[in-house]
Amino acid sequence: MTSYILAERNRVARELHDSIGHTLTAATIQAAVAGEVLASDPAAARAAMRSIEESTRAALEDLDYVLGVLREERSGAVPSRTLSDLPDLIERLRHAGAIVEVNLSGDLSEIQGTLSRAAYRIMQEGTTNALRHGDSGPIEITVALAPESVELRVVNCIGAVAEGNADVVRRSGRGLAGLAERVRLLNGEFKAGPDGAQCWRLSVQLPVRVAR
């Protein structure tokens, strides 16, 4: 297998992990929420089910593309979710019952192409980990555009890190490794780990040339 083919397969494996992993995590939580409020709040239950339908449809598109690449078949267009799709991602988190605090600064539409797609995937994986391992506290999402870089940050409560919660510290090792590799390929900086006694922080800084 050539290095190019191996790199391409590793890339699509990351895409599959980020997309399907996020969808399954969010859909599982949303289904539980819908079941709990079905009798008391049918409108909220319907909203959760619509969110599951939308996110799984997008994941099926990703899966179709990845399988086409792995089978060396001619596949459709590369799935192109970007930072412009971040509001939909945040809405799915809220439908899953998460409290989400969002801090956006700068004109994010200036981030385009590969960088914007990678930034979306980073936020997708970061928020998936926050849903999976969070301790019911708020999820803080930050995307800040500066003249030469974009900062991406996800912070959430995870319980008593100081007591040595090994599961929290390991987190989703495969996902974090994939994120670190994605950031490295973009010449960025990647940090993930405990943030104080109760929180976990994912922090990424990517070099950027904004469109003019």
Can you walk through the features of this model?
The chain is of the alpha+beta class and 212 residues long. It has helices at residues 3-37, 42-70, 86-95, 113-133, 166-170, 173-185; strands spanning 100-105, 139-145, 149-157, 189-195, 199-207. Helix 4 links the parallel strand 1 (100-105) and strand 2.
Give structural attributes:
single chain; 212 residues; alpha+beta; Heat Shock Protein 90; five-stranded mixed beta sheet; 5 strands; 53% helix; globular
Enumerate the spans where pLDDT stays under 50 for 5 or more consecutive residues: 161-172
Strand arrangement within the widest β-sheet reads 1-2-3-5-4
CATH homologous superfamily? Answer: Histidine kinase-like ATPase, C-terminal domain
Relative strand content: 15-25%
User: How much is the average pLDDT?
Assistant: 78
Order of helices and strands: HHHEHEEHHEE
- Radius of gyration, CA atoms, in whole angstroms: 18 Å
Question: Termini separation (Å)?
Answer: 41 Å
CATH class call: Alpha Beta
Major beta sheet, specifics?
5 strands, mixed
CATH topology: Heat Shock Protein 90
Count of alpha and pi helical runs: 6
Determine the structural class based on helices, strands and strand pairing. Answer: alpha+beta
Judging from the principal axes of the Cα atoms, what is the shape?
A: globular
Short description:
The chain has six helices and five strands, in the order αααβαββααββ. It has one domain: Histidine kinase-like ATPase, C-terminal domain (Heat Shock Protein 90, 2-Layer Sandwich), CATH 3.30.565.
Q: Topology, pairings included?
A:
Elements: H1 3-37, H2 42-70, H3 86-95, E1 100-105, H4 113-133, E2 139-145, E3 149-157, H5 166-170, H6 173-185, E4 189-195, E5 199-207
Helix pairs in contact: 1-2, 1-4, 1-6, 4-6
